[in-house]
Amino acid sequence: MDHAEQKRMLMDVSVGAPMHKMMKRFWLPIALSSDVTADGAPLPVRALSQDYVLFRDSAGNLGLLDELCTHRSASLCLGRNEGGGLRCLYHGWKYATDGTLVEAPNVQDPRFKDRVKQPAYAVQEKGGLVWGYFGPADQQPELPHHPYFDLPEENVLSEIVVANANWSRTIEGLLDSSHTGVLHQDALKLLGTGKGPAPSFSGRARSSTGAVISKDLAPSIEVQETDFGLRYAALRSFTTPDGDSGTAARITTFSYPTTVAVPPDNLMQLMLPVDTERTHFFMVFWDEQRVINTGAAREEIFQYYGIDDTAKNKHGIGRAYKDLPDRPRKENNWLQNRAAMADGSTFTGLYRFIPEDFAVGESMGPMELYPVEHLVPADLAIARFRRNVIDNAKRVDRGEEPRGLAPRQPITAGYVELAEGHSWTEIYQGEASAQ
Length: 435
Ligand code: FES
Ligand SMILES: [Fe+2]
Hints:
There is one protein chain. By secondary structure, the protein is an alpha+beta fold. The chain folds into 2 domains: 27-139, Rieske [2Fe-2S] iron-sulphur domain (Rieske Iron-sulfur Protein); 147-428, no CATH class. Helix content is 25%, strand content 25%. It has 12 helices and 18 strands. The chain has helices spanning 3-11, 18-23, 112-115, 167-174, 177-183, 185-190, 199-215, 295-305, 309-313, 338-342, 353-363, 380-397; strands at 27-32, 43-47, 50-56, 62-66, 80-82, 85-87, 94-95, 101-103, 122-126, 129-133, 156-163, 220-225, 229-239, 245-255, 259-262, 267-275, 278-286, 414-418. The strands form 4 sheets. Strands 11, 12, 13, 14, 15, 16, 17 and 18 form an 8-stranded antiparallel sheet that branches. Helix 5 packs across helix 7 (199-215). The longest helix has 18 residues, at 380-397. Bound molecules: FE2/S2 (inorganic) cluster and fe (ii) ion. Residues 173, 179, 183-184, 353, 357 line the site of fe (ii) ion.
């Protein structure tokens, strides 16, 4: 495969593309639980270039249906959610959560309802997220278990922001330890100053990571294949003020199809490939000790990462703002503040982690551009990610089972400081071996 073919294979999630087929074999996050209330407005969901409607009926059950009514294709997003089902506004056909047609007012034959069904998909709620499965019903896998599934609601904080960029761009940014000390240096400077998040959330580990990352911009990268995908360590040497030295390992995991756990926080980031050029970016934070889904704790975390209201409105990464004409985009140079760069108050002229990542990711252009790339050793995890997901897409395209459907190894990130002569891989010895 040449560069252009490889890029298309990786990025294209349109109907029929190998990556689309591969992703359909997995559960995908599609919404926050709080997005849909009993008898509330139905939610449009676009996933893998196709359109659906999500609703919660009067009894609290979720329904995930094709968006267009099977009578004559009016959008069910216009429908009325009432009395235990979703009623199409055009002729009043009403569907239960499993797609059963329960009323068809313009049909006289009472048996007609048994012959027609609105296509419906498996849906479940775990960890404050709604998950959808769009693949063949007889091949539905288990949803892999994530640590925050077991916690009370108030110990988990989740949000969705939008990148007008391919799903693989957003993942590659998370598997890219060497950009952190450059692109996010403004945010890293907040660590340990009291302006970053409270130590009770992130602990000492995070400030020490920040210090190490800023000092070493060319970490060594080591990658390990796992049954869920891959895990990699960015290795940087450090010396403490007392003169002790060692190696810091920042361990990140990628699990199929679109999940990345990053250290040192309890943070998981999951992508919903809306279509080839847009991604819904789910961020899930959890803290066993603390309530974080409300008040100052919530605001602190959101501000640090740059997914607070300022980011969502002014910087345009919120779901409600992503299509507004004045949102940051190529045409306005992502609203970069050159004056603030000139006076030294910011390195990027952008706003905090996520808007910085999205501006860069969007700036890389659409799938159809094929600029030459020069991958360097610091890009090793990205190269391996690309190769692995492309291989998996090809497997499914050939009619084989994808890798990563039933992971047994724990999908966790970590930050460790290693003594002389020790490897980060020792942490995972004794685990179920990779498939
Ligand atoms: S188009 Fe939905 S009921 Fe006619
Ligand atoms: Fe980043």
